[in-house]
Amino acid sequence: MGIEALVPIVLMLGVALFAFLIARSFDPVARPYALPTLVAALAFAAFLNSRDGHQHGYFWSSLIAWFCLGSIIFGLPAHLIRWLVQRHGRKGSAS
């Protein structure tokens, strides 16, 4: 059993990240971070999936895997920015 064991894990993680970003896009506080992350990850996945040359029958698996990677790439900076904004807001209100 090799690297192919990660395929179901990545697919489940990709679907979970998609559902998480959709749910967070409805929250007015998290929307400025979640919605751009969702759109950027979808564009990233669509672009790389079209260039990837996936094998026949693996279109959705490949798209979800690229979405998973894109949501991590674009989600980590968004989470960091949100954390820094909230931290700065608490520090400014205490003074």
Helix content: over 70%
- Described by the principal axes of the CA atoms, the overall outline is elongated
How far the N terminus sits from the C terminus, by CA atoms, comes to 57 Å
What is the total number of structural domains? 1
Task: Give the beta-strand count.
Answer: 0
**Gyration radius, to the nearest Å?**
16 Å
The number of distinct helices, counting runs of at least 4 residues, comes to 3
Mean of pLDDT: 88
Outline the secondary-structure elements.
Layout: H1 6-25, H2 31-52, H3 59-94
Helix pairs in contact: 1-2, 1-3, 2-3
Short description:
With 95 residues, the protein is mostly helical. The chain has helices spanning 6-25, 31-52, 59-94.
Report what the structure shows:
- With 95 residues, the chain is mainly α.
- It has one domain (3-89).
- It has helices spanning 6-25, 31-52, 59-94.
- The model has no long low-confidence stretch (mean pLDDT 88).
Key terms:
single chain; 95 residues; mainly alpha; elongated
